[in-house]
Every structure is written in structure tokens, then in C-alpha cells.
Design a protein that fits this description.
Layout (H helix, E strand, L loop, with lengths): L3 E11 L5 E12 L4 E5 L6 H8 L7 E6 L2 E2 L5 H8 E5 L10 H6 L9 H14 L15 H13 L5 E5 L7 H17 L3 E6 L2 H4 L4 E6 L2 E2 L1
Parallel strand pairs: 3-8, 3-9, 6-7, 7-8
Antiparallel strand pairs: 1-2, 1-4, 4-5, 9-10
Bound molecules: adenosine-5'-diphosphate and magnesium ion.
Adenosine-5'-diphosphate binds next to β2 and α1.
Length: 220
């Protein structure tokens, strides 16, 4: 049994009776625990669709996804999105009116995690992503690379087992993008998180342990 098993995953977007798009047409692959895997494919190949499903943002799929042998549909969606997966996106999605620290702590707002534990975790993450001196800053005062580091810390605050990254370097220059990839690599080791990164860029995918290629909604 593999850590994550994706079996015959299909997703069709139905716009009307006549118009529909088959974004995923039967994707199957396995992911091992602790892997840093990339899924590469051109624009429109279904990468974001796949990641949204893995991230618990879209449950309208056919097929099956198991993590540690458990069908993800058995999880309560909010629990799944907080404790099993953490997701980062090309556009960062930080809340403009909240500071770096508040953005990182945002996922914690909704449950009663012990304050001491949260503080420790926050300090550790701020240090790891190199933003200790930026904790009071607002998103508009950050560079793109810094903003993505905030998003990474936010994704990790609840100690998820799996980190999903949708084109995380897509809005960054190549040097900054490289530093974000290196940070993800480091976290893959130190946090022992499994990482699934999707990208249209082959060069980016080469930096990961293993590459899955997606063409027109199918892995080849
Ligand atoms: N919410 C949606 N509604 C309808 N079609 C969509 C939606 N999201 C994606 N698609 C379509 O599904 C296909 C795959 O899209 P996507 O998963 O975003 O690909 P990628 O991330 O690889 O660029 C594309 O043809 C896209 O237009
Ligand atoms: Mg996409």
C-alpha cells in the first residue's frame, strides 16, 4: 500500500446541458510518504483541478483517493483541509488587512488550539521562512518571495502531513523562485511533509524527487 493512492480520478465541469469540459479523464498514481513530487503539464492539462481535489477544495470528482488507506471522503472537510493538507498557491492569497503574523495564524482562529503551542510554532516558522523581522508588516509591504514565504508558513501552522503547491513560483523571478523551491525542499526534510507541487515548467519539476506528467487530464 502506498501512502497516497489516486485511482482513476475524473472530473468533468458541466457548464450547461451542451457544454462540459473533462478536466481529468482518469488519473492514477501513487505517492510515497516523504516524497517531493511534481506534476508537470501544459496550461489546461488539469493540474489545478487535480490539486484542488487533493486539497479538499473540490469533492465533485469520480474515482478514489486514499491516504494511509483511508478514503479522503471519510474525513470531515474542514478537518481534512487543516490537519491533513496545507495548500499554497501562485497568487499567495494573503489577507491584505492582516499582518504577516496574523496571516500565518489565520487557520488557527477557528479552533481551540493551545495558545502556548501556537506561539512556539509561530516563532519556529517565522524563523524557518526567514521573516522574523517582518512579522508586523502588511502584505503590501512585502516582496513576492516574502509573501510566498508567509503563505508557506500559514500552510504549515497546523502541522499538516501533506503540502500542496500550485505553481508556487509562478509569480516570482527565477532567483526568488529558486529560493522558494529550496525552502520547500528543506521543509520536506525537516518537517517530514510529503509535497506535491504542480507546475507547467519542466525546469522547476526537475528539482523534485519524481515527476508525473499530465497531458489533457491524463497522466502519461
Ligand atoms: N471551474 C471551472 N469551470 C469550468 N472549466 C474549468 C474550471 N476550472 C478549470 N476548467 C477547465 O478544465 C481544464 C483544466 O484546467 P486546470 O485544472 O485549471 O488546468 P491547469 O491548472 O493545468 O492549467 C481547462 O480546460 C479549464 O478551462
Ligand atoms: Mg493551474
Amino acid at each position: 500500500m502506498s501512502y497516497i493512492e489516486i485511482k482513476d480520478l475524473k472530473r468533468k465541469y458541466v457548464m450547461s446541458k451542451e457544454v462540459s469540459v473533462e478536466a481529468l479523464g482518469g488519473v492514477s498514481f501513487n505517492i510515497e510518504k516523504g516524497e517531493f513530487l511534481s506534476v508537470v503539464g501544459s496550461s489546461g492539462s488539469g493540474k489545478s483541478t487535480l490539486l484542488n481535489i487533493l486539497g479538499g477544495l473540490d469533492w465533485e470528482y469520480k474515482g478514489k483517493i486514499c491516504i494511509d488507506g483511508k478514503d479522503i471522503k471519510e474525513y470531515e472537510p474542514n478537518f481534512y483541509r487543516r490537519h491533513i493538507v496545507g495548500t499554497i498557491f501562485q497568487q499567495f492569497y494573503l489577507i491584505p488587512s492582516l499582518s504577516v503574523e496574523e496571516n500565518i495564524l489565520l487557520p488557527m482562529k477557528f479552533v481551540g488550539t493551545k495558545v502556548v503551542d501556537v506561539k512556539q510554532r509561530l516563532e519556529y516558522l517565522l524563523d524557518t521562512v526567514g521573516l522574523k523581522s517582518r512579522r508586523e508588516h502588511l502584505p503590501k509591504e512585502l516582496s513576492g518571495g516574502e509573501a510566498q514565504r508567509v503563505a508557506i508558513a500559514r500552510a504549515l501552522i497546523d502541522c499538516p502531513k501533506i503540502v500542496l503547491a500550485d505553481e508556487p513560483t509562478g509569480n516570482l523571478d527565477s532567483k526568488t523562485g529558486e529560493s522558494i523551491l529550496n525552502l520547500l525542499k528543506e521543509l520536506n526534510k525537516t518537517e517530514e511533509v510529503t509535497i506535491v507541487l504542480v507546475t507547467h515548467d519542466r525546469e522547476t519539476s526537475k528539482k523534485t524527487d519524481r515527476v508525473i506528467t499530465l497531458v489533457d487530464g491524463k497522466n502519461v
